[in-house]
Amino acid sequence: MDLHLKESRVTGELVYDGHFLKVQRDTVRLPDGKNTTREYIKHPGAVVILPLFDDGTVLLERQFRYPLDQVFIEFPAGKIDPNEDPLVCAKRELQEETGYSGTDWTFLCTIHNAIAYSNEHLDIYLARGLTAGDSKLDDGEFLETFRASVAEVMTWVREGKITDVKTVIAAFWLEKIVTGQWTP
Amino acid sequence: MDLHLKESRVTGELVYDGHFLKVQRDTVRLPDGKNTTREYIKHPGAVVILPLFDDGTVLLERQFRYPLDQVFIEFPAGKIDPNEDPLVCAKRELQEETGYSGTDWTFLCTIHNAIAYSNEHLDIYLARGLTAGDSKLDDGEFLETFRASVAEVMTWVREGKITDVKTVIAAFWLEKIVTGQWTP
Q: Which of A49, A166, A181, B7 lies at a 20 to 30 A Cα distance from A70?
């Protein structure tokens, strides 16, 4: 199925192998039989954690993102290590970035954030039963955490104060869950 | 403000200048005074169009995305040409990809889809007053269009059938608008 849309790999190579980014360039066969070039980032995948406290607030981060030269409000997230289980990664990243550990973890959804030029996917988890502890930020990682209500987060989405896609999507899911419309 | 989070450029260069992807690698000064490397995609920005018919259905596309080797359900979207106004781009992309033109355009929000490694932003527009016409797909572009109700789209988001971030976020906005919760 979908042969009228599908593209097939002919040849390809890793054309940029950087410290963080890896760029693959493939020659592909189009549905009409012609060839073209596709370039994309090879990404290991990532996780996003939605830490929900019993009082209905969530834990967020403020982090400077160099490509856009600004501080973003984000839910905790991180890249999956080689052969790491996504849920193990989510628990690790929450603890490393915020110090919190959770007893109750629920998978919400997978999202794809740059389908034209990256194979990245992000698995979003809801974390409850939270207990504070010590954070262990990576070398060169700087962020601060804060708590906000669901109503505040949704206002910031509507007003454009939250624009990071993983955080926007997690916020909409959060509202669906706390209002009882969606049961994860 | 935010000097305890901010990173500053020291030097940098374009390390990969491909057909589609451009990778910038900068040496940056961290908040603690140390230097590190940041690599990111230089992207011109893009637009997303949410085409809403008077009967409450929306226009969607099915398109094969090579980096993930699968067909995605998406709202129409496209890259902004050099010096192009985003709204002009949105009108152009809707007509090129689907043939439709709209008389009533409303800006909804800007989103950032890969803040760790791309400076891409996407401006999302609601398009109403739609009239069918002829599409003019780019060379090497293959897609099909279909219509669905808001309820169907939201079910596909919840079930994980729609995972493309621009489409997920536009769907949540759509529901907010048609239920009267948010007035754009």
A: A49
